[in-house]
């Protein structure tokens, strides 16, 4: 017995050694996604870090490229090497850094990933392809502050604005055109999120926007963008004209403050021009240019269906289809209910009574009597005859029993039926014989 106990101890010791050995030689590999903030405004960047760790090392680089995130612009910046020790084990990691810029007030989901890596097993040197999975991350998007115009909202770390003019501002006459170009250089955003300039109207001046251009600049650690816009001022009346200040605002998410940049306005003294025909010619030319630019812009606009984006149209279509299916289901239920009620009514005593009521008063006496007897077939009386019905339920003797068809009317019928339903009866002579 003692010998058997020693054998058991030896087996357990061997199993423990094998377990420890397998743990020591097994590979640990995992991935994780982290956000530097979980709630942002529209256009405010979120730094998303995708990291993969291994207990050995990577034999090839890790490159996921740009990751598509619905409802946001995504910019890939750079990889960063990571390493740490835990319980005497060293781990190597590669971290990929992205900036995600939501462009609508809908919450954004950074998708779950399946990342292919090559890493050797412990003690080996040849990389083995493996798949690492990560979980999705939700980014909450806050609405634009109510005190701010949504079409002018901009989140940025910095903004500079400059302008240049084409034409002599000190020598302007009716029919002349001055071309104004404003360039905004914005830090910490993508060009698509720089809102178009809202041009202030100027009395006695027609304004024709020109083409705008956007550019993006990216380093290993930062991104910036530039938007250049042009407006043409056509002066149509002489006198003093004031070009107002142009104010740009932006929200700095790092300082959590609103900032303003102002381009100062100025006055223009417009002189008279005896050649007013030139004014019409210039106006027509500028309108043609504007129409061409608008047409080109519409061609570049994203696809819309009935004025809705494809996503919004699909959502609206699903809602409409769901509502239609519910309505069709309820209509079918209602139609089925009506058909059942109608069928039950057409087989009821009331239906045949109403048929009789519509017939009385007509000149066709046979038809009246046929309808009367058809109704009698539906009621429960001892003797299914017209004479018996009148003898028992015509309490006031309103109907001439010898001339039933001519003396019946709707009022008398109602009284007879009422007496039948309430079982208001009159004794019938038992010696009476149905003729």
SSE string: HEEEEEEEEEEEEEEEEEEEHEEHHHHHH
Low-confidence stretches are 10-25, 430-435
The span between the termini is: 117 Å
Number of helices: 8
How much helix is in the residues? 25-40%
Structural class category: alpha+beta
**CA-based gyration radius:** 45 Å
The largest pleated sheet is described as: 5 strands, antiparallel
Percentage beta strand: 25-35%
Calculate the mean pLDDT score and round it. Answer: 84
Q: Can you tell me about this structure?
A:
- The longest helix has 37 residues, at 310-346.
- Strands 10, 12, 13, 14 and 15 form a five-stranded antiparallel β-sheet that branches.
- The chain has helices at residues 2-25, 277-300, 310-346, 349-359, 365-376, 386-393, 404-407, 410-421; strands at 29-35, 39-41, 46-54, 72-86, 89-102, 108-110, 114-119, 128-133, 137-142, 158-166, 172-173, 177-187, 205-209, 213-218, 223-235, 239-243, 246-252, 257-263, 266-271, 304-305, 308-309.
- The chain is of the alpha+beta class.
- Helix 4 runs antiparallel to helix 5.
- The termini are far apart.
- Residues 10-25 and 430-435 have low confidence and may be disordered.
- Strand 17 (246-252) and strand 18 form a beta hairpin.
């Amino acid at each position: 017995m003692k010998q058997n106990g020693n054998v058991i101890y030896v087996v357990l010791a061997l199993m423990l050694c094998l377990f420890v050995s397998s743990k020591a030689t097994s590979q640990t590999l995992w991935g994780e996604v982290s956000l530097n903030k979980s709630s942002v405004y529209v256009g405010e960047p979120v730094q998303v870090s995708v990291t993969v760790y291994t207990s050995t090392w990577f034999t090839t680089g890790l490159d996921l490229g740009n990751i598509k995130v619905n409802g946001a612009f995504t910019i890939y910046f750079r990889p960063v090497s990571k390493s740490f020790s835990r319980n005497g084990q060293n781990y190597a990691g590669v971290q990929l850094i992205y900036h995600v810029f939501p462009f609508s007030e809908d919450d954004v989901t950074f998708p779950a990933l399946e990342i292919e890596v090559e890493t050797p097993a412990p003690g080996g040197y040849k990389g083995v392809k493996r798949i690492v999975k990560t979980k999705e991350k939700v980014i909450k998007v806050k609405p634009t502050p109510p005190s701010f115009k949504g079409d002018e909202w901009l989140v940025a770390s910095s903004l500079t604005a400059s302008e240049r003019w084409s034409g002599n501002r000190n020598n302007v006459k009716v029919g002349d055109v001055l071309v104004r170009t404003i360039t905004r250089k914005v830090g910490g955003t993508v060009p698509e999120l720089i809102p178009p300039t809202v041009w202030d109207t100027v009395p006695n001046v027609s304004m024709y926007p020109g083409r705008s251009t956007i550019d993006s600049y990216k380093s290993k650690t930062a991104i910036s963008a530039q938007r250049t816009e042009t407006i043409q001022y056509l002066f149509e009346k002489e006198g003093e004209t004031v070009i107002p200040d142009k104010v740009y605002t932006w929200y700095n998410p790092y300082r959590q403050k609103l900032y303003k940049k102002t381009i100062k306005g100025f006055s223009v003294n417009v002189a008279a021009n005896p050649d007013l025909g030139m004014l019409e010619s210039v106006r027509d030319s500028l309108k043609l240019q504007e129409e061409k630019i608008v047409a080109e812009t519409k061609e570049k606009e994203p696809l819309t269906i009935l004025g809705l984006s494809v996503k919004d149209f699909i959502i609206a279509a699903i809602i409409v289809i769901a509502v239609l299916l519910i309505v069709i289901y309820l209509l079918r239920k209602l139609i089925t209910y009506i058909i059942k009620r109608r069928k039950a009514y057409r087989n009821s005593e009331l239906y045949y009574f109403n048929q009789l009521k519509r017939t009385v008063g007509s000149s066709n006496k046979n038809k009246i009597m046929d309808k009367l007897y058809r109704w009698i077939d539906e009621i429960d009386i001892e003797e299914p005859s017209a004479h018996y019905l009148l003898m028992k339920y015509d309490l006031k003797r309103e109907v001439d029993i010898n001339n039933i068809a001519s003396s019946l009317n709707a009022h008398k019928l109602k009284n007879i039926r009422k007496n039948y339903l309430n079982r208001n009866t009159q004794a019938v002579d038992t010696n009476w014989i149905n003729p």
